TrEMBL record, chains A, B:
PANTHER family the record matches: LUCIFERASE-LIKE MONOOXYGENASE (PTHR30137:SF6)
Leader sequence segment: none
Region Disordered, residue ranges: 293-319
Protein's name according to its UniProt entry: Luciferase-like domain-containing protein
Length: 319, 319
């Protein structure tokens, strides 16, 4: 098992300037490399405090690449439905080159109605757009003179530059949240799986589905299933001390996250059957409940070192 | 007058790996800062050796920002017609933050048919798309809750994050090539002007048009017209020595450039009346003729130091 840092800005102009934010996360990234962490992960969002300070994880990771030499750079996640595959294939390959082959590419489906509305992308065809964009990006990374004809984009004879540095292409991870079929599908496609744990039993069952499907379809390929789990974790001498320090940050994160999901109050989408009213559900969370969901075998994700290690053992067994 | 370095990759997989290319241009950028140059400029292109190694100048400049502290970062140019204004406003503001306010944003209209075809953007409405995208980006940088309703994009109540670091926003430059009205228009809009000199008399007349229009519309604002000129320049002890060293590079640049403009052989566009057959014109150029166009008051753009200084004086007077 490896450990990395996972960033998703929850700052707003009122709480922190962009210059201060980037100075801090670049310093954290350099420190993470010094301390032997495996990766820096950064995600893509727009327009709201929730993730909005990082609309381009690739811009950020390019800066990290320039200040580090070993740590891997992880997009967690890029939202491919908002991008043309020729751009995605080219931009990722560029950061793969700048980092000398240290890029991992995580993709997620996107789920915030105001992002879809702003970019004029319909939510209801999102699953199909998601899969065909990723499939085309991989084709562009690995083949030349690629043509595509889809309802979402179409082009002929494209050979993207630069070509990827990693062979055959940067590792690909897809995120899944709840739908069991998503976990199976990611295994069938042979990609890595990204999860945000919300209950260890649920994860174990889902991760099992993924591994079964992966091995059934790619067991002979030499590739191995890989699971990346992101969760809030603060290590202190005691659980109480950890909670005292970490809870205000978790509370602020929840506040900013809930604000972004208010756009689900009056939105419906057949591709997102359980999302309407999402913020009403999130409003029931507290740092404590959030914590027990994140690391249920410990009292709190902000755990003492021993509780922390105990929390992590089950994950280790399942990844 | 200030001097910077202007990059446009002319490498292909057969001639140079992306890792080597980026290692070199990042080292050049650090050196440029050490030597007191004013800026590093990098441009956006796709799919061909001509510029194709840098589909995202912002990704590159973010890496430069992370390795430097004073030199300014210049997109020369971003092609706004291939981007959603919410992304452009957000991504540029992000690099503005990472660099602590060192970003200059140059925009160009794009002119390569295969780029338009691949992204499904029609060339014939390009001028209108160009202007409305830039106008909207500036609005997004300077206002909150911005709505836009155009044939090219439409959205409501968007407040982009991060907000720009420079006030009121990063300086904007637009490129112009030949059409006299373009120079007037850029002056009217009050932006900086980017040119690629192709004859000093033509430049002087065009720059004059720009300055007149700028002063007529913005003379009272305190803003000043600014001209950025990019041209190949190699300094050696003698002109002959400079030509001996630089000509092979200019020849290779011409070869790669001509290859990219072959797509104009059978293309026509009312927005680009004089471009059909462009590569046939470029094929008549040699490093020598290219040189005389770039720096006509010297024998060669690859000039001795004294010839070089002489070449630059007229530009100084006109900028």
């Amino acid at each position: 098992m490896q450990f990395g840092i996972s960033l998703l800005p929850d700052v707003e102009p009122e709480t922190r300037s962009p210059v201060d934010y980037y100075r801090d996360v670049l310093a954290m990234s350099r420190l993470a490399e010094e301390l032997g962490y495996s990766h820096v992960k950064m995600t893509e969002h727009y327009l709201m405090g929730y993730g909005g300070y990082c609309p381009s994880p690739l811009n950020f990771l390019s800066a990290v690449a320039a200040q580090t030499s070993r740590i891997r750079l992880f997009t967690g996640c890029i939202l491919p439905v908002f991008h043309h595959p020729v751009k995605l294939a080219s931009y990722t390959a560029m950061v793969d080159a700048i980092s000398d082959g240290r890029l991992d590419v995580g993709f997620a489906r996107a789920y915030l109605p105001y992002e879809f509305e702003t970019f004029g992308v319909p939510m209801d065809t999102n699953r199909e757009r998601f899969e065909s964009t990723i499939e085309t990006v991989i084709k562009l990374w690995t083949e030349e003179n690629v043509s595509a004809e889809t309802p979402f984009f179409s082009f002929r004879d494209a050979t993207t530059l630069p070509r990827p540095t990693q062979a055959p292409h940067p590792p690909v991870y897809l995120s899944a949240v709840r739908t069991p079929e998503s976990f199976t599908r990611i295994g069938e496609l042979g990609h890595g799986l990204m999860i945000t744990p919300s209950g260890i039993e649920l994860n174990a069952e889902q991760v099992h589905r993924y591994r079964e499907a992966f091995n059934a379809h790619h067991g002979d390929s030499g590739k191995k299933p890989t699971v990346v789990a992101s969760l809030p974790l603060y290590v202190a001498e005691t659980d109480a001390e950890a909670a005292r320090i970490a809870d205000p940050y978790l509370r602020e994160y929840l506040r900013v996250w809930i604000k972004s999901t208010d756009s689900w109050d009056n939105a419906t989408s057949k591709d997102y059957p359980s999302y309407t009213g999402l913020s009403r559900y999130l409003r029931t969370l507290t740092p404590g409940t959030c914590a027990s969901r994140a690391a249920p075998s410990s009292a709190h994700p902000s755990a003492s070192p021993s509780a922390c290690a105990a929390t992590w053992r089950p994950s280790r067994a399942s990844t």
